C-alpha cells in the first residue's frame, strides 16, 4: 500500500505542476493585456520585448488583438527556437510588427542597447532556472537601462516545486549537460532584486497551489 500511495502522490504532484504552469500562462496573458492598457492610458507607446521567449507563442497569443502595440521583439538563446518562432510569426501574418532574434537574456550590454527602447519587458520562466543572483542582476540591470521611466516589467517566480529531484534528473541542457540544480528563490528575494534594479512592484498573481507567481513592476524615475 505504501508503493501505491507513493504512486498516487507522484501522479498528483505531476498534475499540480502542469496545472500550475497552465495557470501561469493565463496569468501572464492577463497581466500582459493589463500592462498594454496601462501604458496606453499613460500615453506611452507600447513596445514589447520578451528576452527569453521560447517559441513566443504565449506572447503572440496575448498580443494578437492588441492594436495599441507598435513593436514586438522576441529573443531567445536557442537558434532552433528563433527559427521556429520566425516561422510562426509568418504563419500568423504578424511579420510587420514582430521580430525574432537570437540573444542572451543575461547580457546587460545587449539588453541596454535594445532598439527601439521597450516600454514593456517580459521575463517568463527564466530566472527560476538559474540559482545565481549575479546573472539575474545583470539581466535586470540591462532591462532597467533599456526601459524608460513609467515602462513596465513582467516577471515570473516560483516559490516551490512539487518535483525538484525528478526534474533535475531529466533536465540537463541549461547547465552544459550537468545535472540541473534548482534553487527556489523566495518571492521576497526575487522582488528585492527587481526593486534594487529600479522597478516598483504593483501587482502579483499566483496559482491556487502557491507555486508560480506572475508579477508586474513599473520602472521608476532615477
UniProtKB/TrEMBL annotation:
Entry's Gene Ontology molecular function annotations: methyltransferase activity
Biological process terms in GO annotation: methylation
Keywords in alphabetical order: Methyltransferase, Transferase
Source organism of the structure: Escherichia coli
InterPro entries per UniProt: MeTrfase_dom_put, SAM-dependent_MTases_sf
Annotated transmembrane regions: none
Alphabetical list of Gene3D superfamilies matching this protein: Vaccinia Virus protein VP39 (3.40.50.150)
The protein's name: Methyltransferase domain-containing protein
Residues covered by the Methyltransferase domain: 2-219
Source superkingdom: Bacteria
Amino acid at each position: 500500500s505504501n508503493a501505491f500511495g507513493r504512486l498516487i502522490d507522484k501522479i498528483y504532484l505531476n498534475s499540480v505542476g502542469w496545472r500550475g504552469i497552465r495557470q501561469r500562462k493565463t496569468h501572464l496573458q492577463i497581466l500582459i493585456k493589463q500592462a498594454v492598457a496601462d501604458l496606453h492610458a499613460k500615453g506611452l507607446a507600447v513596445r514589447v520585448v520578451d528576452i527569453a521567449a521560447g517559441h513566443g507563442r504565449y506572447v503572440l497569443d496575448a498580443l494578437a488583438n492588441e492594436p495599441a502595440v507598435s513593436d514586438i521583439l522576441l529573443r531567445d538563446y536557442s537558434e532552433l527556437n528563433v527559427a521556429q518562432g520566425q516561422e510562426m510569426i509568418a504563419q500568423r501574418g504578424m511579420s510587420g510588427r514582430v521580430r525574432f532574434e537570437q540573444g542572451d537574456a543575461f547580457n546587460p550590454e545587449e539588453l541596454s542597447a535594445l532598439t527601439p527602447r521597450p516600454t514593456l519587458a517580459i521575463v517568463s520562466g527564466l530566472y527560476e532556472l538559474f540559482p545565481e543572483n549575479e546573472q539575474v542582476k545583470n539581466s535586470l540591470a540591462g532591462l532597467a537601462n533599456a526601459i524608460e521611466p513609467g515602462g513596465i516589467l513582467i516577471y515570473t517566480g516560483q516559490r516551490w516545486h512539487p518535483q525538484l529531484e525528478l526534474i533535475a534528473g531529466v533536465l540537463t541542457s541549461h547547465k552544459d549537460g550537468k545535472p540541473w540544480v534548482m534553487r527556489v528563490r523566495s518571492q521576497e528575494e526575487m522582488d528585492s532584486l527587481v526593486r534594487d534594479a529600479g522597478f516598483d512592484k504593483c501587482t502579483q498573481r499566483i496559482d491556487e497551489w502557491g507555486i508560480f507567481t506572475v508579477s508586474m513592476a513599473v520602472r521608476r524615475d532615477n
